[in-house]
Write a structure and sequence with these properties.
CATH class of the largest domain: Alpha Beta
Strand order of the largest sheet: 12-11-8-6-7-14-15-23
Bound molecules: 5'-O-[(S)-ethoxy(hydroxy)phosphoryl]adenosine
Helix content: 25-40%
Structural class: alpha/beta
CATH architecture of the largest domain: 3-Layer(aba) Sandwich
CATH superfamily of the largest domain: ANL, N-terminal domain
Number of helices: 19
Radius of gyration: 24 Å
Oligomer: single chain
Shape: globular
Largest sheet: 8 strands, mixed
Number of strands: 30
């Protein structure tokens, strides 16, 4: 593909061009895709509104780029290799032609059930092939998919369905995770009690346990499929029509429904896929993320399929049936690019090396990481034991909001550097700002990361709330997109992400806002208030420490600890359970009543000496109690 950068000179040239004349640069890139009608204007934006539009007036359907376009040349090539939870069950290889047929058929199921262009469809499914089929089927007919990670609780699911008023829910009877069955339909049924917008729920039979049934609402996937054929023309979509909504956490209790549009998202997710992973024909590429997160959207489904790649998707978990599962899969399918999260690397590095060395990993060419900063030790373990010192490692920095990879080395082309995401991709202009929002001009510096110019796959808004979109991303530093991360830059211009500078905590690579967890805890009738902070954890990167104040001044109670953890699991999901719960007499507050989280973070990380300036506290005496409470290990 003409889109691919092949040398360091190419990279510098492309970067230069993309900065000098972004419209001309993206015009040429976008021409490589299939459009039903060419755009009239490449870019129009005003970040004071904020509003950003790419390829204005262009018409397309992303599924024609993912599927139809490949049929003539790659119809019999494997599009998706699906590796089941149970290693004894055979993997499935789905060709582009088969995928095309399945997507069109399911698109007809959606149509039969009243789904039309612009309707929202919630997808709450395990990592089975029907998940990407469902997403692509939505895209085929112009319905907007909202995929909710199948580890979220009923209440979290309901909140997401209600926020975008989804009309149909797609789910399965259950999902398999190692030797456990997750009763997805039960969880979904519970959610649907409070979701009046859902008219139909279509259920794929995966785990075959008995499930409750609501006549008129619930339908079996296979029975619906039996009623349709597999011919379905692609809906003509405007470049700026919504392709999908994906929720991410923020610093209030309400999740943010990030809106991605058809044209720009397709161009940039594919461009970054092709260049970062240097995908070549016949490569077998595997991203271990769940499709419920942006990494799965962009780098299991849309980026690879638009490229015409072979993409692996894995139903199970890295520890089942043993800690060698990832490496077994790499060997079995001859994976060439392997993309995972630092938290998985750290967890696997804790186990005997024989889980790795018993597999032949000579197929691997390129390794990648995403989701959180990777520490030096994990980087070297990955490099030596998995990459055998011969695979470039791409440390990819990006976000749900950015749609595609923003800062990363391009495998084998630009140099990697342990713990550094390194250089921006063409079209991306990162800057470091000081606390006053002024750009730091020295090359070697540390500051707040911000992005100067729009790129095609920037999320266009928060669904139904452009005001919040403006507040979160464009108000703190007017004229820039503010991602919420800090970074440092070395003398060669390489960026290292230092972590969040807002109230979002990344636990095992998952974004968790502190507010929703605190809201969940505060729902307990014995609790007055709470504050949740992160502390360093050697596998998860960060873990959660909850400071909890009760009405009757309880200072230790195991039953209450259990109840708090369950409440969080019920409200959000197990990923948000605090590791440590410390009962306190009060929380450190400023005179204006704001909780001083800086102090709580220090104490939670075991640093009780250097608490900094506490003179602005309303209740400085509380600090002593907090330290004593921590020292006792509660
Ligand atoms: C963090 C995941 C350091 C960062 C694609 C960002 C990273 C947030 C990296 C977005 C990385 C992601 N190095 N930190 N390579 N990649 N992050 O929306 O804090 O789930 O803002 O998107 O993860 O998380 P999200």
């Amino acid at each position: 593909m003409a889109l691919q950068i092949k040398s360091i000179e190419d990279y510098h040239k492309a970067y230069q061009k993309s900065i000098e004349n972004p419209s001309k640069f993206w015009d040429e890139i976008a021409k490589d895709f299939y459009w039903k009608k060419k755009w009239d204007q490449t870019l129009s934006y005003d970040w004071s509104v904020p509003e950003t539009k790419w390829f204005v007036g262009g018409k397309l359907n992303i599924t024609e780029n993912c599927l139809d376009r490949h049929l003539a040349t790659k119809g019999n090539q494997t599009a998706i290799i699906w590796e089941p939870n149970d290693p004894k069950v055979k993997a499935k290889h789905i060709t582009y032609r088969q995928l095309y047929s399945k997507v069109c058929a399911f698109a007809n199921v959606l149509k039969n059930n009243g789904v039309v262009k612009g309707d929202r469809v919630c997808i709450y499914m395990p990592m089975i092939i029907e998940l990407p089929i469902a997403a692509l089927a939505c895209a085929r007919i112009g319905a907007i998919h909202s995929i909710v990670f199948a580890g979220f609780s009923s209440r979290a699911l309901a909140a997401r369905i209600n926020d975008s008023k989804c009309k149909v829910l797609l789910t399965s009877d259950g999902g398999l995770r190692g030797d456990k069955i997750i009763p997805l339909k039960d969880i979904a049924d519970n959610a649907l009690k409070t979701c009046p917008s859902i008219k139909k729920s279509i259920i794929f039979k995966r785990t075959r346990q008995t499930v409750e049934w609501i006549k008129g609402r619930d339908l079996w996937w296979h029975e619906e499929l039996a009623k349709v054929d597999d011919s379905c023309p692609a809906e003509v979509m405007d470049s700026e029509d919504i392709l999908f909504i994906l929720y991410t956490s923020g610093s209030t209790g309400k999740p943010k429904g990030m809106v991605h549009t058809c044209g720009g998202y397709m161009v940039y997710s594919t461009y970054s896929f092709l260049n970062v992973f240097q995908y070549r024909p016949n490569d077998i590429y595997w991203c271990t993320a769940d499709i419920g997160w942006i990494t799965g959207h962009s780098f299991i489904v849309y980026g690879p399929l638009t490229t015409g790649a072979t993409t692996v998707m894995f139903e199970g978990i890295p520890s089942y049936p043993d800690f060698g599962r990832f490496w077994e899969i790499c060997e079995k399918h001859k994976v060439t690019q392997f993309y995972t999260a630092p938290t998985a690397i750290r967890a696997l590095a804790k186990h005997p090396l024989s889980f790795v060395t018993s597999h032949d990993l000579s197929c691997l060419k390129i390794l990648g990481t995403v989701g959180e900063p990777i520490n030096e030790e994990a980087w070297h373990w990955y490099n030596i034991n998995i990459g055998k010192n011969k695979c470039p490692i791409v440390d990819t920095w990006w976000q749900t909001e950015t749609g595609g990879i923003m800062i990363s080395s391009l495998a084998g082309i630009t140099k990697d550097k342990p713990t550094f995401a390194t250089l921006p991709l063409p079209g991306i202009q990162p800057v470091l700002l000081n606390g006053d929002g002024i750009e730091i001009t020295e090359i070697k510096a540390e500051g707040i990361l911000a992005i100067k110019q729009p790129w095609p796959s920037l999320a266009r808004t928060i669904y139904g709330d452009n005001k919040r979109y403006k507040n979160v991303y464009f108000s703190a530093y007017p004229g820039y997109y503010f991602p919420g991360d800090g970074a440092l830059r070395d003398s060669k211009g390489n960026y290292r992400i230092t972590g969040r500078v807002d109230d979002v905590i990344i636990v095992s690579g998952h974004n968790l806002g502190t507010a929703p967890i605190e809201n969940a805890i505060n729902e307990h009738e014995d609790i007055v208030e709470s504050a949740v902070v992160g502390f360093p954890h050697d596998i998860k990167g960060n873990a959660l420490h909850a400071y909890v104040m009760t009405y009757d001044g309880i200072i230790q109670n195991d039953k209450l600890i259990g109840e708090i953890r369950n409440l969080v699991t019920k409200t959000i999901g197990a990923i948000a359970r605090p590791d440590k719960i410390q009962f306190v007499k009060g929380l450190p507050k400023t005179r204006s009543g704001k909780i001083m989280r800086r102090i709580l973070r220090k104490i939670a990380s075991g640093d009780t000496e250097n608490l900094g300036d506490t003179s602005t506290l309303l209740n400085p005496e509380i600090v002593d109690d907090l330290q004593k409470g921590f020292a006792k290990g509660r």
